[in-house]
Amino acid sequence: MSVSPSVSAVSTPTQAELLDFVRRTAADAQLISSLPLDPEGRTWVRLEGPGGSEAWLIGWPPGTGTGWHDHAESVGAFVTASGELKENSLTARLPADGWKTLELTEGIDRERRLPAGKGRSFGQHHVHEVLNESTAEHAISVHAYYPPLPQIRRYSRTGHVLRLEHVERPEDWQ
Ligand SMILES: [Fe+2]
Q1: How many CB atoms lie within 10 A of CB 152?
Q2: Three-class SS state of 68
Q3: CA 122 to CA 118: how far, in whole Å?
Q4: What percent of the chain has pLDDT over 70?
């Protein structure tokens, strides 16, 4: 008789499960309206994500954005709950380490408009920036990452050249 392998009680959340979580959370009107908004800058509240993931509710005043960054080895998902966000991302997978500047080839830029209810999931080393380009309206979004963010790499971009500027660790944002 074969013995079934013991399955750990904690299963690793998939990108699809993270996306499902951020969708359900974004549909919770009471939670979304509880986020304090500040016209001067982004606001955030940490949430409990599924399976030990790290989740955030984020408020974006008009004209704010993240700048180019990635979430290292974490996978994630986010969805706009109100207003509209834009995501600029790179479709090519970049080398994770061992470079300071990288010249990008043509045609790897991707733009997505994410009105309320729209979102996406992403894999490891997804390089992107998220912006609220509205001149008048706040945006609110829900994000989840697994494993909980070990680091965020921040880049500057000039034309096709991406430069690694610094690496943020959890103590920088918690
Ligand atoms: Fe991000």
Answers
A1: 19
A2: coil
A3: 14
A4: 93
